[in-house]
Amino acid sequence: MIRRLVAALLFCGLAGVALAQQQVGWKTGREAAEIERKISALLKQMTLEEKVGQLHLSGRGEGFDIEQVRTGRMGAVMNFVVPQEIRQVQEAVRQSRLRIPLIIGLDAVHGFSTYFPLPLGQASSWNPALIEQAAYWTGREARAAGVNWTFAPMVDISRDPRWGRVLEGAGEDAHLASVIAAARTRGYQRGGVAATVKHFVGYGAAEGGRDYNSTWIPTSQLHDLFLPPFKASFDVGAMTAMAAFNALNGMPATAHRGMLTDLLRGQWGFRGFVTSDFGSITELRLHGIARDDAEAARKALLAGIDMDMMGDVYHKHLAGEVKAGRVPAKALDEAVRRVLRVKFHLGLFERPDVDVAAAPSLMQTEEARKVARQAAREGVILLKNERQVLPIAASVKSVAVIGAMAVPEDERVWTDPAGLGRRVVQPLPDALREQLPAGVEVTYQPAFSRNCGTEFKDKEAALKAAAAADLVVTMLGEDCEFMGEGASRTDLRLPGVQQELLEALVATGKPVVLVLATARPLVLGWADRHVAAIVQTFHGGTEGRAAIAEVLAGKVNPSGRTPMSFPRSVGQIPVYYDQLPTGRPQKIRQRYESIYMDEANEALYPFGFGLSYSRFAYADPRVTNARVPFDGATEVAVDVTNQGERDGQEVVQLYIRQPVAERSRPLRLLKGFEKVFLKAGETKTVRFRLEGRALGGHDDTGRYQLDPGIIEVYLGGSSLAAARTQFELVKR
Ligand code: NOJ
After folding, report:
1. What's the CA-to-centroid distance between 684 and ligand 1, angstroms?
2. Max CA-CA distance within the chain?
3. What is the DSSP string of 128-158?
4. Residue 196 Cα: closest atom of ligand 1
5. Cβ contact 133:191 at 8 Å
6. Contact 503, 176 (CB under 8 A)
7. Based on the number of CB atoms within 10 Å of its own CB, is 16 exposed (0-12), middle (13-18) or buried (19 or more)?
């Protein structure tokens, strides 16, 4: 017994040590001061070329020159995923004069070997602790393979589903996105890789949803909406940032001194380094603010870009700019200091090379897959469930699964870092067979030749299978070229011939459950009117289809909520919940009101929405303080009851509105949320703390302003929350 206890303690101790070694982040006090001294000493030894080398980030593939590592001309690498290859570059470092370790970066975004749902799918869980776990395992696996820097989290607010990169973020809301940004940052860095908060700033507001396009963001909105998730990440210790491709209000973000230096370093006190995006320094020529690469390099460095990702521009021109006196040596030293600082704080100088032999066994561990399964479950959003067609009833004896998306080759839907332990995901038909009672027949027809349904393979066979079954489950959506960077769309219906198939399936007269795996909210009006149920996922990762099967079979009660509003039509975009009031609000839908002649104002599925197999009721919303000073706070409480027959999770959401202030304030603004588990019939009191000082907004000069007045509070299960209470915000 005692021996077992000792062994357990020893194990916990060792695990604790391993974990402590794994975690990265800013060191403080004496350790931090010591690091600054070490950097100063190192800077004194470095040649101009070696300094520039620290700012040069080059990537695996054609043109990669390992000689630059050996000669101290390269400080960072990216896109290496195979431990043996990482080992080679690490060995090359030791042949260099000063042996300054490399920072090794990768887009390990929603997984490395184990895939978690796409970030937007994780955000749909509204479960920050779970999202943090997913980031932790992403970081851990990447770290085990030798990576020490991830290009994530992307914290760009996105309100325009035409933009292909909405999948990488946490949706449309500043509060939700900030909580998730902090969770992901913590997770990656606990897992052992430095986080990169990106894209600084405004990338998500690309005009017309066209990737890389200019953004125009008023100062008040920049501060109220776009900057908070960045700030939240830095507040929990994010070590690096990435500048955006876009021009913000006319100034390319890669040369935006106001943002990169004055705000980020000046006001926010950020001590880490900022990398450019892929080739974005040389793109300053195309933005029309540099005549040549030398000028681009100069402008970027002086604005505050420390590292040149894949541009070769610092490598080729920075030394010349310094020698010519156009870039002060001090500015170069500062940038190098910031890069070295991150390397020291990461512990790279003491860290052994990647353990090539151990790496594979650390991939797709049971724990990681458990988290992936839970994240996939909680990310499933039930958008429609007519006549409780779900969960699949005992009377259903046969199910036809239709659509190639149901059986993918693997779940590397978008990034492709996995060099290790790639595992094929469980196909949906198999997962359903496992979850449904024995004796239920599950058939499968792909219908299309590719996942994304651009062309039919055998439509007739699919329709025949549908007609022969009691229930049709069709898995459709976006995949292939329809998602991610550079995949902006103007048409947000199902791509290819998928809509045609859906209509034909509905025409069979069989109840149709539409399971979606998409990169963004699609326009789903037709489906909403005609199919029996809609199950939305944003590509659930390695465990995605297994989790869907659990939801369909009723083993898991869906609890995902929309992180973005779903538009009824592209013409409504942008559609988001926290709109300002107008002077002509929609009342009776008459001509001179703020309405469309041909479309409703409201989203098809509002922000924060999602059905459950249970029903939740809200009662007795209340505040502890009727008057809250600017520097005070109140508790807000509400009783939530699960009135359904099944246990389930509800996302309790708190919105505020200040009906009269110095400037117009949003009709609703999310200020808190909590995911709670309630047994069937159970009631819980959910409490929130609202700080007076958090209830203001920024003005046109960027000044934060609090106004006294009534604050209405709404509590409920979506942005349409109806339980209402209020208090008064007072100066003192
Ligand atoms: C360009 C993307 O904008 C950025 O987010 C990514 O990290 C880099 N490519 C590197 O792959």
Report:
1. 44
2. 81
3. HHHHHHHHHHHHHHHHHTT--EE---B----
4. 7
5. no
6. no
7. exposed
Domain range summary for the chain, segments of one domain joined by + = 2-308+325-345, 376-572, 616-730
Residue type, 579: Q
| Encoded amino acid at 328, one letter | P
d(CA 110, CA 674): 23
* Structure-token pair, residue 658: 């200040």
Q: In this structure, what token pair is assigned to residue 657?
A: 């509105």
Q: What is the CATH number of domain 2-308+325-345?
A: 3.20.20.300
Cα end-to-end distance, the chain, whole Å: 61
**387, 434 in Cβ contact below 8 A?**
no
Which of 79, 118, 245, 277 to probe ligand 1 with, by most ligand atoms within 8 A of CB? Answer: 277
Strands of the sheet containing 633-642, edge to edge, are 616-623, 633-642, 683-691
In the reported structure, the alpha carbon of residue 277 is separated from the centroid of ligand 1 by a whole-number distance in angstroms of 6
pLDDT tens profile 492-503:
999 999 999 999
Catalytic residue among 173, 277, 430, 578: 277
CB of 208 closer than 8 Å to CB of 195: no
Per the listing, tokens 């046969």 go with 398
Fold agreement between 376-572 and 616-730: no
Cis peptide before 574 (omega within 30 of 0): yes
How many Å apart are CA 245 and CA 202, to the nearest integer?
Answer: 9
Looking at residue 88, its pLDDT comes to 97
Residue 310, sorted as left (phi over 0), alpha (psi -120 to 50) or beta, turns out to be left
Render pLDDT for 438-487 as a digit per residue (tens, 0 to 9). Answer: 999 999 999 999 888 999 999 999 999 999 999 999 999 998 788 899 99
What are the distances in angstroms from CA 727 to CA 81, 581, 659? 54, 20, 12
* 476 bridge partner residues: 516
Percent of the chain surpassing pLDDT 90: 93
The torsion angle over the Cα atoms of residues 505, 508, 513 and 517, rounded to 10 degrees, is 0
pLDDT, mean of residues 398-405:
98
729 pLDDT more than 60: yes
pLDDT digits (tens, 9 = 90+) for 638-653: 999 999 999 999 999 9
Output the CA–CA distances (angstroms, integers) from residue 259 to 322, 621, 674, in the order listed.
24, 41, 33
- State the pTM of this model: 0.96
Burial zone of 701 (CB within 10 Å; 0-12 exposed, 13-18 middle, 19+ buried): exposed
Ligand 1 midpoint to CA 731 (Å): 45
DSSP string, 537-582: ES--GGGHHHHHHHHHHTSS------SSPBPSSGGG-S--S-PPP-
Tokens of 415: 């990034």
Neighbours of 529 (CB within 10 A): 9
List the residue whose alpha carbon is closest to atom 11 of ligand 1: 107
- May I ask the CATH class of domain 616-730? mainly beta
Substitution candidate for ligand 1 out of 199, 278, 280, 415 with most atoms within 8 A of CB? 278
Q: Give yes or no for residue 409 having a pLDDT over 80.
A: no
What one-character DSSP code corresponds to residue 424? P
Which residues make Cβ contacts (< 8 Å) with residue 613, sequence separation at least 6?
382, 390, 391, 554, 557, 558, 644, 646, 648
Q: Is 277 noted as a catalytic residue in this protein?
A: yes
Return the CATH class of domain 376-572: alpha beta
Q: How far is CA 715 from CA 174, 190, 607, 640, in A?
A: 18, 33, 14, 10
Element of type H or E holding 652? strand 648-657
Using CB distances shorter than 6 Å, the residues near ligand 1 are 107, 151, 198, 277-278, 485
Which amino acid would we find at residue 547?
A
With 0-12 / 13-18 / 19 or more C-beta atoms within 10 angstroms meaning exposed / middle / buried, residue 393 is exposed
Q: How far, in Å, from the CA of 278 to the mean position of ligand 1?
A: 6
